[in-house]
Amino acid sequence: MSRRAVVIGAGIAGMLAAAALSPVVDHVVVLDRDELPDGPEHRTGVPQGRHAHLLMHGGLEAMEKLVPQAGMRAYLLAAGARQISLSSGMLALTPAGWFRRWRHDEYLTITCSRALLDWAVRTAVLRNTNVTVHRAQATGLLGSARQVLGVRLSPGAGGEFAPGLLADHGLRLTGDGREAELDADFVVDASGRGTRVLRWLEALGIHDVREDNVDSGLVNATRVYRVPQGAQNWPLTLIQADPYTGRPGRSGMIVPIENDQWMVSLGGTRGSEPPKDPDDFLGYALALPSPLVGRLIADATPLTPVFTSHSTSNSRRYLEKARVWPDRFVALGDAAATFNPLYGQGMSVAALGAQSLAEAVRQTDVAAPGLARRVQRTLAGSVEAAWSVAVSTDVLYPGVEGGSPTLAHRLTAGYSQRLTKAAAGSYAAASALWDVTCLRTGPTRLMRPDAVLSALMGPALPPLSGPPLTADERAFLARLGQGVPTAAR
């Protein structure tokens, strides 16, 4: 008898979940309400799509395992993505000062537009698995609190159900033909920030899922520029917000992406939001704790208008703690938890969640009682790691909604401040921070003896007086007529 899995959402989380299920079922049907583009183009269903994204080391490793036939790293690089080492290829001004650039080419991160990443992951999965994508809107789950048996659908914005769904998958039309039911042996909700998973679970009789929301009011403003001649190898540049001053946070970053472009994203928490006006955008960049980002883009050619987004809150649904959980159903990616995108961990958490699903279904039948609950609890580990990083910082900003600093937050913040200060002049301390940021390990990494000793002893090297530029980078700034401005140090 043919076995089918259904995945709701064709974003990165959904396509990776489909890849996870592909080896153990006869077919995986991915449903998405959007008409998906044929190439690396933006779509409305990704609210953060026009802003900077970093694919961290842990997430990339998970992708490599989920689609081994594709060779995801090589595939992304061939599509135009960039590979950057956080330890040697990044300029970062932290609240403790400029980080050094080390000779170690570790903590490799992929940078590109979200449109390219979505398209590359989707095409890699579709070319190497038994997965198909259809346009439809999931409106509910079939089954009970004990077991999910499929999904309820409407045709979505397309107005009609795709012929492939009707002909190939036995879609049952209901009512006046405007709704339908699709049976499945396993269902994954990967529908993103707009998930209705709590409403769907309540319809099944599950009412005890707690949800937390922490919102610093962050607004992202992003514009894409052509890379200036001579700056093709300019490093990832990051001016971090300072959560310890009691004032709103302001940040900026230059992310090298495909097609010789820079994606420049500015961020400001409640009370210090970046503007959408192009002239004010530049002024905001120049007024950051270092004007380096602003000076670099002052004479660069803009290729897009300024796009802004308010979809930046942290939201966590404690699905793994529900008293009853239905078999054959898992929610992952943003459907389980969303994070402030400033910390760059959402995609990697989704990939790690899909990897947990893949490992589980390789060992146990997808319909086995208790399997879905075990998966939901397992993927909560990577969710907790990212949640801890994001929320323990966001609650420190003024005007935050949904949370306030607890004693635990303040102790965490104090330790983080010391470790960051040490990391400005100690590779051991910096590697501990990067291990957690890149999701190579969990937050307990910060309490290992080497990290604690580094925090206690402080930086081994004196603080830098300015950004750690190479000779070629200094020459580029000099050609701009800017030199290395005192204010940028």
Structure, described:
By secondary structure, this protein is an alpha+beta fold. Among the domains are: 4-53 and 115-212 and 313-382, FAD/NAD(P)-binding domain (3-Layer(bba) Sandwich), CATH 3.50.50.60; 84-105 and 215-311, D-Amino Acid Oxidase, Chain A, domain 2 (2-Layer Sandwich), CATH 3.30.9. It is built from 14 helices and 23 strands. It has helices at 12-21, 57-66, 72-78, 114-128, 163-168, 197-204, 278-286, 292-297, 346-363, 371-394, 407-423, 427-437, 449-457, 471-479, and strands at residues 4-8, 27-32, 54-55, 82-85, 90-94, 97-98, 108-111, 131-135, 137-143, 148-154, 172-174, 179-183, 186-189, 211-214, 219-226, 236-239, 250-257, 261-268, 301-302, 307-309, 314-317, 329-331, 337-338. The strands form five sheets. Strands 5, 6, 15, 16, 17, 18, 19 and 20 form an eight-stranded mixed sheet that branches. A five-stranded parallel sheet has the order 8-2-1-13-22. Strands 9-10-12-11 form a four-stranded antiparallel sheet. The radius of gyration is 23 Å and the shape is globular. Residues 483-489 have low confidence and may be disordered. One of its GO terms (molecular function) is FAD binding. Keywords: Signal. Residues 5-358 form the FAD-binding domain. Pfam families: FAD_binding_3. InterPro entries: FAD-bd, FAD/NAD-bd_sf.
Strand content: 15-25%
Question: Structural class of the helices, strands and pairings?
Answer: alpha+beta
Mean pLDDT: 91
Secondary structure tally, helices:
14
Number of strands: 23
Name the overall outline: globular
Indicate the CATH topology of the domain at 4-53 and 115-212 and 313-382: FAD/NAD(P)-binding domain
Q: In angstroms, what is the radius of gyration?
A: 23 Å
Task: Provide the CATH architecture of the domain at 4-53 and 115-212 and 313-382.
Answer: 3-Layer(bba) Sandwich
Find the CATH superfamily of the domain at 4-53 and 115-212 and 313-382: FAD/NAD(P)-binding domain
Helix % is 25-40%
The biggest sheet, with number of strands, parallel, antiparallel or mixed sense and barrel status, is: 8 strands, mixed
Termini gap? 67 Å
CATH class of the domain at 4-53 and 115-212 and 313-382: Alpha Beta
Low-confidence blocks of residues: 483-489
